[in-house]
Specification:
globular
């Protein structure tokens, strides 16, 4: 049994559930957007809008002209970024329902050294889960949050609760209720294709037209792979056929994930070493079954 001890770490508080993060990089973002299509198909560049960069002595293939970037506009103001964390007996399944159902949630992030910030109206843009033979179960997420809802918080307190890390041996994986033999690793990613809803132009009734008002979830996609030892450990060599139910059982039923997927043709690396076959899959139907 492994124990996470308290220390100089950062942690997220999501609906009262606290999780220690390996890294956390959700930040305020805004990009300058360029109209590449305006000039991209022209045979010549109007002399009225281009300038020569540098002294013009070495013009190169583009003749040092940077006309494309003259036409630009500011992008949406948004908070976005990712964080990763190991699964434990306390936080297993954290943000799973939010990722599966595109639900909105609030999140605080604190360092014990005195940095703290609250992100409201967050959505999971992507969610990845990975389990590898002999390793720790871990998740990585990409989060989108509405920029105007960020709140600076007082200094963070030290989080001292001990947690048991979840390792590979606590996960049972089956395919249509049959054990998946000799697995080396299993991973999948949910992509919610989130889109910020905002006003690009001026709006007399809106003092901050570039602030995202809502974050909309797009078409959910699920992809993943499972890799196994030995030549005949997983015999799915044909093309896409009928759907299968992949089941991940954590800690003898404490948390269960069910995925409806079709397997794509199996991959095998032609390299000297152990025979490891990789079976990619894609979520179909409702992708994720409610347990």
């Amino acid at each position: 049994m492994s124990i996470i001890y308290p220390g100089f770490v950062g942690y997220a508080n999501i609906g009262g559930q606290i999780v220690r993060c390996n890294d956390f990089s959700v930040n305020i973002k805004q990009e300058a957007l360029f109209y590449d299509h305006v000039l991209g198909l022209r045979d010549t560049t109007p002399t009225s809008i281009y300038t020569i960069k540098g002294d013009g002595g070495d013009k190169g293939p583009t003749e040092q002209y940077n006309a494309q970037k003259i036409l630009w506009r500011p992008g949406v103001k948004l908070s976005q970024g990712g964080f990763t964390f190991p699964w434990t007996d306390i936080n297993m399944g954290l943000l799973w329902e939010e990722a599966r159902g595109g639900k909105t949630f609030d999140m605080d992030f604190k360092y014990s050294c005195g940095i703290a910030r609250r992100f409201n109206k967050c959505k999971v843009n992507s969610y990845a889960l990975k389990v590898s033979n002999g390793d720790i179960v871990s998740s990585s997420l990409d989060i989108m949050a509405i920029h105007e809802e960020i709140i600076e918080l007082p200094d963070g307190d030290l989080y001292t609760a001990n947690e048991k890390i979840m390792t590979w041996d606590a996960v049972n994986i089956t395919i249509d209720d049959d054990p998946a033999p000799n697995l080396v690793s299993f991973d999948f990613t949910i992509n919610n294709a989130c889109i910020p809803i905002y006003t690009a132009g001026s709006n007399a009734s809106d003092t901050n037209p570039l602030e995202a008002k809502e974050i909309r979830v797009g078409m959910q996609q699920l992809t993943g792979t499972m890799s196994s030892y030995e030549e005949n450990s997983l015999n799915y060599l044909d093309f896409v056929d009928s759907s299968k139910t992949i089941k991940l059982n954590f800690n003898n039923g404490e948390f269960i994930i069910k995925i409806t997927a079709v397997f794509r043709p199996m991959e095998q690396s032609a390299a000297v070493g152990p025979v490891i076959r990789t079976l990619p899959f894609t979520g179909v139907d409702y992708n994720i079954l409610v347990t």
